[in-house]
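User: Predict the complex with xanthosine-5'-monophosphate.
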Amino acid sequence: MAEPRETILILDFGSQYTQLIARRVREQGVYSEIHPYNLPLEQVRALAPRGIILSGGPSSVYAEGAPTISPELYTLGVPILGICYGAQITAHQLGGSVEAADDHEYGRARVSVRVASDLFHGFSGDSELSVWMSHSDRVEALPPGFHLAAETPNAPAAAFSDPERQIHGLQFHPEVAHTERGAEIIGNFLFRICGCRGDWSMASFADEAVAEIRRRVGEGGRVVCGLSGGVDSSVVAALLHRAIGERLTCIFVDNGLLRAGERELVATVFRDHFGVDLRVVNAADRFLAALEGVTDPEVKRKRIGNEFIYVFEEEAAGIEGAKFLAQGTLYPDVIESVSAKGPSAVIKSHHNVGGLPERMKLELIEPLRELFKDEVRELGAELGLPAHLLGRHPFPGPGLAVRCLGDLTRERLEVLRAADAIVEQEIRAAGLYDSIWQAFGVLLPVRSVGVMGDARTYAEVFAIRAVSSRDGMTADWSPVPYDVLGQISSRVINEVRGIGRVVYDVTSKPPGTIEWE
Ligand code: XMP
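Assistant: Here is the predicted structure with xanthosine-5'-monophosphate placed in the model:
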């Protein structure tokens, strides 16, 4: 008989990195779930976690209403790892002292590992590590029973452990890529301290998701799935197809904001190849009407989100028994749109989250909500989707609308579509497509003067955007070679009427976002 699934419970205090913790844990083969920091004790018990991780968060332990965990959690006999704010609150609640530091420590720091703690198993006693810090408070005095495990000049208690109760605190972030040997520290917590086996995988995720979909939809329920041809919705469709087969209807909305050739591609792959019940809706007119005169990015996103849902509802009304709407919402969409499971800041309303109309008639199914893009690709491969589809660059739900700044007219969208297709063709031709996270074009409502032939031109500016990223949460602009940029530029100017100048965007995320709106 299979062993029961081992779970690590992550209690979220609102850090932007909380989900990264979850994935670092899953990457090591241990299932993890994120819940709000104030999850009731009986629910914690019901999850029977092998270990609990307390995330970082924006608060100060002395701020009014600062979030804390139920003190009983420290007595359950379940190992605890507090990270950043999670470490401070642990020290504070267990009788240590936390004080405001003179200078806010943010960015790289060097820690010295001082005393053997299980967290640093396999590290020599005098290891020096480069780590990622982000805090303004620091732990001054350790609670009774704890010893110092690592320190920095600014945060004397960079790591501390109580080996008796197996409660640990890390002032720095082991989950971010900038922290040296962070995965080993998390691994020590999972395997040495919590005694996990590490036998969880994407295949188990697929099985669990299929079982959960069947449970929610019931014997006869039908599901409508919005299919965009992008990676996320394709994986959702494949998952639903596996779970409920013919009781799935996919709806592809041609909203007039799609990339070149998208509609044909979707029909070929899903209808002809997979045999999915696919309906194509011509909705360009109504989307463009809803967007007329709209230039504010948030208003655009909300209107598009609303239109999508209205179209789905109308289509679903003609499908007997359709009660559910499946969407490919990912974790970054959730975390940046709303304070999903804890108190973190709103960056953008992603169309399939923040844009939902108040009065939704369909129940939502969002099986990818806990995943990052690369995990979704892994899941897609697990479900047998072809590599060429899974390797496609992400395309935002609001489509070209958030890449066409200024008035959203048919003509300007056509200009952008044609120029964007050139970017993709040239990036592919240069063999760069698979090593770049996303490459696309943006049309700016700015005109500049030029000369073509002997005539003066006065046309809009086109920006090329190409970034590398692991999960879309952070990104670096890609150093696309000059000759490739040059080739794109000359083709765009020569082949697309309406563009007079081409520029390259050299902004990383942060401080920029990947999309311009
Ligand atoms: P940003 O612009 O927030 O984008 O740095 C991060 C990633 O998310 C994609 N993106 C979206 N995806 N609906 C989506 O499904 C949206 O509304 C949306 N907005 C941005 C973006 O393309 C990038 O990969």
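The two ends are 51 Å apart (CA to CA).
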